[in-house]
Write a structure and sequence with these properties.
single chain; about 270 residues; alpha/beta; 6-stranded parallel beta sheet
């Protein structure tokens, strides 16, 4: 049966995020999944990427370069224990769920540190294996998070700006970059501003969404082979021509100067 890793980043066991994490664990286990939780705050997970992440001597202490040094350490089995443990969990997982409160339009520092330290060069990506050809192309991943602002504030005409744009760096620049099939995010809009009954309804809906999550269609991204590696990985002329008469760009990031495809980072099949 499927193995699920929940990477959880909230300080309080009484929080809505904790309830969402627990609900996901219960629903997925009821479907026969094996679920493991990495509770980053409880683990006191180190958020900073430093030379201490390599056991023993580094190759170039005078000019320490994290990506190159940790790639070599990964190859030689010299990464520190907390990174190795998380990589072991990730290797086993078929689905990874990131549960967190949105901080400053992105993930909390401790979760960003998990991404920085666990997704090392060589293990999670390489020049040859990234995006649609990435290391984790047989795995699925999704973001599940709370906001402090109402949904209307994250619309295309909202004061915070389009949530699809906000999500692009995380879903394309981290998850898709490593090859994950990225599932549509679960967004809990401003639960702290809702009455308890409404929060309970949100959790019930989350449980319903998870019933078929392993069979869910992922979000669409432009495949790596649509880009010309000999020309700085620009979109090949044939694909630019094919999209020339279309109303929308290909994706939020690869928009070709056109209007952004609506909700392409929030719903599959658009």
């Amino acid at each position: 049966m499927a193995k699920v890793l929940i990477v959880y980043a909230h300080q309080s066991s009484e929080s809505f995020n904790s309830a969402a994490k627990d609900a996901a664990k219960d629903v997925l286990e009821a479907q026969g999944c094996t679920v493991e939780v990495s509770d980053l705050y409880a683990m006191k997970f180190k958020a900073t990427a430093t030379a201490e992440d390599v056991t023993g001597d580094v190759k170039n202490a005078a000019h320490f370069r994290y990506a190159e040094e940790t790639e070599l350490a990964w190859q030689e089995g010299k990464l520190c224990a907390d990174i190795t443990e998380e990589q072991g969990k990730l290797t086993e997982a078929d689905l990874v769920v990131f549960q967190f409160p949105m901080y400053w339009f992105t993930v909390p520092a401790i979760l960003k540190g998990w991404m920085d330290r666990v997704l090392t060069l060589g293990y999670a990506y390489s020049d040859e294996r990234r995006y649609s050809q990435g290391m984790f192309k047989d795995k699925k991943a999704m973001l599940s998070f709370t906001t402090g602002s109402h949904e209307s504030m994250f619309g295309a005409d909202g004061v915070n700006g389009d949530m699809n744009v906000t999500l692009w760096p995380l879903q394309n620049g981290v998850l898709h970059y490593c090859g994950f099939q990225v599932l549509a995010p679960q967004i809990f809009w401003a639960p702290s501003r809702l009455p308890s009954e409404a929060r309970s309804t949100l959790l019930e809906g989350w449980g319903t969404c998870l019933q078929g999550v392993l069979a869910e269609k992922p979000l669409s991204f432009t495949p790596l082979d649509c880009f010309d590696g000999e020309k700085g990985f620009q979109l090949k002329a044939e694909f630019q021509e094919r999209n020339a008469t279309k109303e929308y760009g290909l994706t939020v990031g690869i928009h070709l100067g056109k209007a952004l495809p609506p909700n392409s980072q929030m719903k599959a099949g658009v």
